[in-house]
Amino acid sequence: MAKIKIKKNPGSTDMTAMCDVAFLLLTFFVMTSTAKIPEALPVDTPASTVQTKLPESDLATIIVGDGKVFFDLKGRQVRIRTLELMAEKYGETFSDADKTMFSLMDDFGVPMTSLKQIIEMKAPDRSKAGQPGVPMDSTDNQLKDWIYNARIANIEVNDKELQIAIKGDAKEEYPAIRKVMDICQDQKINSFSLVTGLRGKDF
Q: Are 56 and 74 within 8 A, CB to CB?
């Protein structure tokens, strides 16, 4: 007696739920992510095998490249207080809106007289503004004042000593880096970090 073959219908997978999840994830990442703002002074740091990370707070970074020096500072309240101290010293006036915008900025490299113009720019325009760098001449050493006032502000706001990091371009001449180090050492800052790029160890 012949066997009766029962035809099997191939099963189908409903992809509707998976598509919904994919679009929800995509929407979440688009809404929560922020575009990377180009650096005002991009530098190519020298390679190193050191894996020590910089602190997330209580940190000032001095960026050296192309013969210019830029300054960056962590912490919104610290940035605002530092700006207030610098404004008092140089006789500049900044509104509350200016202070708020300055607290949201990244690194900058202009004299105090031009800082208000940079603050009023949109973030993408700052990187194209051709900032000349923070002055650090013997007659106009504003970098020294930024470091000094940032240290005071960090103690007032966070009650901690400010850490200093120097981020220099790999092709930058040594005298420019040395000058920044001398400014730090003149303020009794003998411990600072040198920012490098990570490379694999040679075996």
A: yes
60-113 pLDDT, tens digit each: 999 998 889 999 999 999 999 999 999 999 999 999 999 999 999 989 999 999
Sign (positive/negative) of CA torsion 139, 142, 147, 148?
positive
Strand 68-73 relative to strand 59-65, pairing: antiparallel
Structure tokens at 12: 């189908």
* Strand spans (E) along the chain: 47-48, 59-65, 68-73, 163-168, 193-194, 197-198
Q: What is the DSSP letter of 51?
A: -
**CA angle, 75 then 79 then 81, to 5°:** 120
The encoded tokens of residue 69 equal: 């020096």
Report the alpha-carbon distance of residue 193 to residue 55 in Å, rounded: 10
Three-class secondary structure of residue 187 per DSSP: coil
Would you state the structure tokens that stand for residue 190, as one six-digit string? 């003998």
Q: What's at 25, amino acid-wise? A: L
